[in-house]
Amino acid sequence: MNRLQRLLPGLGVLLSLGFLARAITVFAPIGSHLIVVIGLGVIITNSVGVPDWAKPGVETHSLLLAAGIVLMGATVGLDQIVDAGGTVLLVVGTTVCVTVVTVETLSREIFDIPEKIGSLLAVGSSICGVSAVAAVAGSIKPDQQDIAYAVATVLLFDAVTLAAYPMIGRVLGLSDVVFGIWAGATMFSTGPVTAAGFAHSEVAGEWAVLVKLTRNALIGVIAIGYALYYARRGGAEATIESKPVYLWRTFPKFILGFVLMMVLGSVGVFSNAQTTAFDTASTWLFLVAFAGLGLSIDVREFRDMGIKPVGVVLTSLLLVSTVVLLVLLTVF
User: Fold this and answer.
1) Averaged over 10-20, what is the pLDDT?
2) Where are the strands (E) in the chain, listed by range?
3) Nearest-angstrom CA–CA distance, 39 and 293
């Protein structure tokens, strides 16, 4: 059996969940179909589970999300990015730095958890969730249990923020731009950020993805910084290869595809029909990707993490997200 044949059953499951979520929101308007499809996935994986024959296809959800983001680039106007570019960069840079410092301080001074767990929580909260945890873990060599605690905590807050942010956005009546930048700057992983953004509106989704990709681009820099910090302290077995090579290896390559499509779309390379086709394809890729995201959320993984990592991340998230939202409401 070739690779495509192994992937097709799981892809069929994702597509079926997508159609079901669409149907549910048509006949019972209970919210965004993107949030609904994630909920369906969570219910299935924590009740009957995902059968072995479907797992190869289901596990492609990250790749499908990346493909959807690349195609979405064709619908994002470069002019609006240029107009707000300086503000977005300032918000992203400040938020990342403040989050790292806040989580590290809370971990060491308030909650007294092991140093490396604190560092993994800091990068997971500030950059791009589990991907950042994995990148930094590869350079500072923590214990496997430390990695497991950090990953479980990040995944827990991915689920919590995915449910909470859209509700807060509706209750506060946040504008599309404010909500998109807020979600992109303060939520953790790319999938939940994208889902929450598009649950608010299409414009909010575009801004959320743009801001989140800006954060993701910093993953290599952060990983190198932590590796150098632990190496200089000695005894941490921190390792780092050639800096340019490491930066390229950890850089999320699909960001380049997104930028290329955005530039091509802005200079008029694509016709209106092609742009519409890209938009439709992106929407369906998001839908099936989020079905896979829901199927990957196993609540049993959260049971053994302990309360301290949760306390650190919760405190930091409440502080940072509140301050960032107040700043955005003032600026925009």
Assistant:
1) 93
2) none
3) 10
Encoded amino acid at 181, one letter:
I
DSSP 8-state assignment for residue 29: -
- Sequential DSSP letters for 157-224: HHHHHHHHHHHHHHHHT--HHHHHHHHHHHS-SHHHHHHHHHHH-HHHHHHHHHHHHHHHTTHHHHHH
Q: What is the pLDDT of residue 130?
A: 85
DSSP per-residue codes, 220-250 = HHHHHHHHHHHHHH-SS------HHHHHHHH
Dig out the tokens for 22 from the structure.
């669409």
Helix axes 219-233, 243-250, angle to 10 degrees: 130
Yes or no: say if 250 and 220 are a contact pair by the CB < 8 Å rule: yes
DSSP state of 309: H
Please identify which residue in the block is written with the tokens 């959800």: 61
Percentage of the chain modeled with pLDDT above 70: 91
When pLDDT is cut at 50, 70 and 90, the band that residue 236 belongs to is very low
Sheet strands (E) in 63-186: none
Q: Tell me the domain boundaries of the chain.
A: 75-285+301-331
Which pTM does this prediction carry?
Answer: 0.84
Provide the residue type at 8 as one letter. Answer: L
Question: What are the pLDDT digits (tens) for 122-177?
Answer: 999 999 888 889 888 877 878 888 888 888 899 889 989 999 999 999 999 999 99
- N-to-C CA span, the chain: 54
Q: Report pLDDT for 320.
A: 96
